[in-house]
Design goal:
The complex is a heterodimer of chains A (553) and B (423). Chain A is α+β, with helices and mostly antiparallel strands and 553 residues long. Chain A is 34% helix and 17% strand. Chain A folds into 4 domains: 97 residues, Uridine Diphospho-n-acetylenolpyruvylglucosamine Reductase, domain 2; 128 residues, 2-Layer Sandwich (Uridine Diphospho-n-acetylenolpyruvylglucosamine Reductase, domain 3), CATH 3.30.465; 132 residues, Alpha-Beta Plaits (2-Layer Sandwich); 106 residues. Chain A has 18 helices and 20 strands. In chain A, strand 5 and strand 6 form a beta hairpin. In chain A, helix 9 packs antiparallel against helix 13 and helix 9 runs antiparallel to helix 15. Chain B starts with 6 loop residues before the first helix and ends with a helix. Chain B contains 18 helices and 11 strands. In chain B, the strands form 3 sheets. Chain B has a 5-stranded parallel β-sheet, sandwiched between helices. A 4-stranded parallel β-sheet of chain B has the order 9-6-10-11, sandwiched between helices. Chain B has a two-stranded antiparallel ribbon with strand order 7-8. Classes of the chains: A alpha+beta (553), B alpha/beta (423). Bound molecules: flavin-adenine dinucleotide and iron/sulfur cluster (2 copies). One iron/sulfur cluster binds next to helix 2, helix 5 and helix 6 of chain B.
Chain lengths: 553, 423
Amino acid sequence: MALPKEVYKALKDIVGSENISDDPALLDSYRYSLAHTAIHLGPYYDTFTPRGAAVLLPGSTGEVQAIVRLCNEHKIKFKASSTFWSAQGYPSEDDTIQLDMRRMDRILEIDERNMFAVVEPGVIGATLQAEAMKVGLNTHIAGSGCSCSVLAGATSYFGSGPSNLYGGWHYENLLGAEWVMPTGDLFRIGSLGSGCGWFCGEGPGPSMRGIARGFLGAKGAMGVFTKCAIKLFAWPGPESLPVEGTVPAYRVSLPDNFRAYTVAFPSWKAWADAAYLIWDTGIGYLAHRQFNMFGRELKYAMVKILTDPSKTLGDLEELLEDPEVQRVTEASKRDFQIVLAGMTPRDLAWQERAFDEILARTAGWKVEAMNQPDVADWSLLYLLRLGHKNLNLVFGGSYDGCFGLLGTADYGTTHVEESGQLKKEWEEQGAVVQAGGDCTMGPIGGQGGGGTCLWENFTCFDPYERESVEGTRALFDAATKLGLARGWGVGMEKWNAQCRGPDGRTTPKEERDRIHLSAPQPSVFRYQHKIRRAFNPNDLGDAYYETLDDEAD
Amino acid sequence: MPLEDFAAEMDRCSQCSYCKWIPFDQVRSWRFAKNCPSVSYYNFNSYSARGRYAVARSLIRGQSGYSDTVRDIVFTCMTCGSCDVSCKVCRYNLEPLEMVRELKFRLVEDGQGLEAHRAIIQSLDREQNTMQRPRSGRGDWADGLDVRRLASEKGKVLFHAGCRLSYDEDLQQSARAAVDLFRKAGVDVGIMGEQEMCCGGRIYAMGYREEFARFARANMAAWARAGVETIVTSCADGYHAFKRLYPQLGSGVQVLHTVEFLARLIQEKKIVFRLEVPMTVTYHDPCHLGRQGEPYVPWDGVEKKIKGQIVVYEPERPRYNGAWGVYDPPREILRSIPGVELVEMERIREYSWCCGAGGGVREAYPEYSQWTAGERISEAIATGAEALVTACPWCERNFQDAAGTMGEPMQVYDLVELVQKAV
Ligand SMILES: Cc1cc2nc3c(=O)[nH]c(=O)nc-3n(C[C@H](O)[C@H](O)[C@H](O)COP(=O)(O)OP(=O)(O)OC[C@H]3O[C@@H](n4cnc5c(N)ncnc54)[C@H](O)[C@@H]3O)c2cc1C
Ligand code: SF4
Ligand code: SF4
């Protein structure tokens, strides 16, 4: 339904006619395909999020406040997004106004001495990293890659990635923030609220980080974040990355204080022990089981393609026949990637020795083919910048994670083979890419740098083919069933099922209540219900801010 | 390929927005990280390759219809191909540039073309140039040049001046210089003079496929009559048309851009530099010479799946991702000119920022076109260079205009002019 004329006009007066549109075709470019990736529900063939009532491109905090106030006046739902990679940033109810925050894209400050940056929503990992490196600093980049908004990851959703190990999850790095509350009032979080600057997310000043962010992020359902400060960390490399190579096989050769290794282990226990020892010793700049996302059987062949600009996916089958590729593939079954960065030569020497000792104790080995200079330099660049994450979708155009359980290293290693086996059986049926069952990937290190791993089993499929989409969904249902039967819990494949249903719209309340009541900590959602009542009195967000009211039990 | 045949790609586009940025590995600053002029200027998602996939899907499914907004979304695409390069850093089964072109064709076929473009097409039919100037003046740029006219004589090597150089009095000395340099290097080069016709490349980029084909066939026939085996041009648009589009219609003529030919002649010592040109310069890669200057490879195949759901092609489809465009010859020339110091901008080679003159944008959206050129001038200024050198008259014109409007003292040259200064 179109917005009432006077409302549209009032919105136009706020942002200017060039920054608002309700053209149906333009609005359709703000609909997310639910036959697609990282939706963590479905996938559903040929289903899209609902068309918004209008799209607005605000240019300042003042404009955002004015829009939100007008929405309150007319009881119109709104949803802000910054980089739009995943479904939760799009309306889940009809007649919602979509705010596209990309015009607010400045890096307002990089405080070199206090090691933080102040950014607007449109700043992405790549641009912040490039600017931070100029002053010897770096930013954490979420696993979704450097195309994503730093602010979105820090204030509103998840935020985990390879540099958790050294840089911390994005929510841990969130310092002061400017929040246009669901009512349109402006709230300055942390030290910012007491006029002390951006340096702290808690105090001196109102310690509202948890309230504003909520469980895993409020996902655009609780107002709009217009600025935030993000903690940076040390970068012991050059001011800019000296990138070489022919597209897409770019690579970087860095000074001698960097190492990028792929390592593998004789058993999953050894793998987990290595992770614990890495955390205990405090070594490593980033660590991730990254290239296994292509699948246990395909990963090295894919590396061969990606590091050779003359190759394409059409070379895959031939590469898989190559005995050398088969040997390396076999040798890197239980692998991960790690980057060591020495702040001084002595530091690197110590980290190298410690890492060798870890490998010795766990009987692990360095996968030499992956550590050859050209491949290691490609891998180093890939991991540092995380600018190739569209490779998640390289095969058929779509992927989503199943299982995806967050827990200790042992937790993941107990289910990786069994879940991989289930997936392998489904792969044989043809709906998803046959990659060897185990396409499990994720960071080595979570909150505070250690303690947890995230194990997401990548499932690649073709969003254009109904059988592929529906077969993937059947696999995901089987994954949930297995997870519940084995006591691992419901996996990532159903993460958002409590927020959005098969028609792209909000899940019915009874279903949401059922899911929230069966969650390990339902009280989190009860508490969020109270917060929403207090801060969002007109209920202008959607169900991505997860709540459980008092009546539900 | 009809627009409907891109339906699978529309669904397989991963909505990642990589097409809005230069390849991320190459990002060196906040200021110069963007790649797509249209989404950078208009900001709505629909003005990116990703958004255009979605808009096209909406149109072919009848979920929306034509409107002024839709026309703007489609025709503000410069067809610069920068999105294509960034997308293909990770993807092997999408062709966003091809899709955007097809979308333009569809709108034109449905009578949804822009008035500004229609006026050009009408004049083109009569005058055979895109500059809306009389046909009779096409050869004036070469007045007094001692060079063979291949409209009446035979010759193996043809220099094609193109519409812009034929009519833009400020720029055409570089066409004269090119011919002069070739002649002095002993190349028996000829021109078509007044009989030269538009290559059709620019109208192809505006969405006029049929009209393009007519011009392509006429040009190919004229070349055949004259016995032309090699065609040389200083225009990147023309180069792309001859190199990538004409072979699709059967042309087998060898195509060289002036910079490729000059680099060869310099290497062979047929052109020798005698003078210093003390100047710090930066070089702009024209989109149609760089990332779109890769050689055409015929392909007639189909999609197939391996490993269940991996989309590949039978036989293997050529991959145009900007890796093998013409990047080094102009740089080799610049480095070989005594006194010239080349400093690079941040966005170069396959991820170069567009000059803003492409896709019919200069003709229909002048402000946006100038903004795009202005962005490049700012990037050139950031290098500390005194001059911005390019290898296409459309880029040169747009840069000169933008520098003038901005009041910037940045000098803009065609590379041929620097070569001429040094010999
Ligand atoms: C292929 C893929 C892989 C992913 N992998 C990971 C991963 O490894 N780790 C991880 O942490 N996440 C991952 N994600 C999830 C998510 O996309 C990321 O967390 C990402 O960092 C956010 O980027 P985005 O482009 O989706 O952000 P956006 O689309 O901008 O938004 C993300 C959420 O934040 C909200 N939001 C954005 N900006 C604002 C604002 N200014 N004010 C209020 N709310 C706002 C949106 O409404 C939305 O709910 C992945 C997603 C995809 C598609
Ligand atoms: S061709 Fe150029 S202007 Fe068009 S969508 Fe691609 S990057 Fe943008
Ligand atoms: S066109 Fe390519 S780069 Fe752009 S969103 Fe689609 S997949 Fe990503």
